[in-house]
Amino acid sequence: MGKTSIARAVLNDHALASKFEDNRFFVRFDDMDASQVTLGTFLDRIAKALGLATSANIFNSITKTLSASQTLLVLDNAETFLDAAADAGRIADVIDGFGARSNIAMLLTTRTTVLPPNLEWVRFRVPALEEDAACMAFKLYYTPSIENSTLIRLLSAVDFHPLSINLLAQAAVQNDWTSQDLVAAWDRQRAVLLDGGEGKIQSIAVTIETSLNSPSLLKLGDTARHLLQIMAFLPQGISKQRLTAIFPVVDNIESCADVLCKQSLAYLSGDFITLLAPIRLYISKRYNVNILKNPLLDKVRRYYAAHNEDDEVISQEDVNVEHVLSHWVVEPDAMSDVLDLICDFIYSLLDCRPRPLSLRPIISGLDPGNANFSPSCTNFLQAFPGSPKHKPYLDKAMCLFAISTITRWIGQIDEAENILEEARGLMLGSGRFGRLRLLFVDWGV
């Protein structure tokens, strides 16, 4: 049983259910990347869990709702927002504000020990399973006979870690391993990691690698590993419904997804095939440093680019789309085109589910002077001689204007004005076409 499972058990405990009644709220952050979290997205997540609409005074609305009666607020995977690139300090202040109210009880689950400093937290570490419980958990999945001494030796090697035990058992079942096969696979993978310069390694790493190098996955070729990397890259995971649409020419993509789920490397959450946080973290750190070399990434980009104005896709996969575009736009060869895609995405989001965005720091940090022109820009550049150097600046300006529009729509007026001023400055410096566009922008505002 991991942190999230324990948190849900606490949330549904009979005594706590009697005390807090319907004022028990679970807010998940495992489907977001720390780079995507701002104060706005953090508050928006809580607001949605409370059934509130995004508004200009969303913090006050949340505080009023939480303060109405005895309330239990669970924030799952807190390391995501506590390590937020943009607003970690402001988010910590908000949590301090919630915790200062005597009627609000908070439970945070996190892999780190860093917590907002101004509250007196009671810390509980999730311990490893007891020996008997660990053996029982393994045998729930793996039914062939196995000597108790062999099992204890194997499970002690994974530190009686619940997720590791589950992964090992599923790998043994899916590959029809005997107990000897399982021990040999574990020892072999541990030796590979040590020989690779890993030094002291965590049992979860060996367990994941044992599953990845098992026959049932290896026979699928590189596609299974590439798909797992994409699942780790996308905050929401991959839509099961759209799996073949996203990867139309990958013949065994469904088989790969099925095997990853059967080995418990992935799991189905609603309509999305996704990963538990420890597996996502491991895959991201070990394999996704070179995510641009993954051949499936281009197919994900192409799919989201083609469905950038599809309300159904945007309303269901907006977090994924925003994440993909934010990583794509920094590439010089793609910058100008992706800025156009981001504009379309923002206006589609405005139509179907307006919310705070994490794109502003990324867009503001772009240097349009580094942009290269794609073939799709050719007609534009021929029609407007002398404009090539200005176009990326104008693209960036229009993208910022779109961000200011959705920011204004959700009631964050001061922030919207700041973004709009940045957009205006870029338009003024983008030649006569930028100044002409500025006239329409000011007229629209």
Largest sheet: 3 strands, parallel
| Helix content class | 55-70%
Question: Given the structure, what is the number of helices?
Answer: 24
Uncertain segments of ≥5 residues (pLDDT<50)? none
- Count of β-strands: 6
Beta strand %: 5-15%
Which structural class do the helices and strands define? mainly alpha
Distance between the termini: 53 Å
Average pLDDT: 86
What is the spatial order of strands in the main beta sheet?
1-2-3
Radius of gyration of CA atoms, rounded to a whole number: 25 Å
Q: H/E series, N to C? A: HHEHHEHHEHHHHHHHEHHEEHHHHHHHHH
Shape designation: globular
Briefly, what is this?
The chain has 445 residues and is mainly alpha-helical. The protein has helices at 3-11, 14-20, 39-49, 58-66, 79-82, 88-99, 131-139, 148-157, 162-174, 179-195, 203-212, 215-218, 222-233, 243-246, 253-262, 277-286, 295-306, 311-328, 335-352, 360-364, 378-383, 391-409, 413-428, 431-444; strands spanning 24-28, 71-76, 104-108, 238-239, 267-269, 272-274.
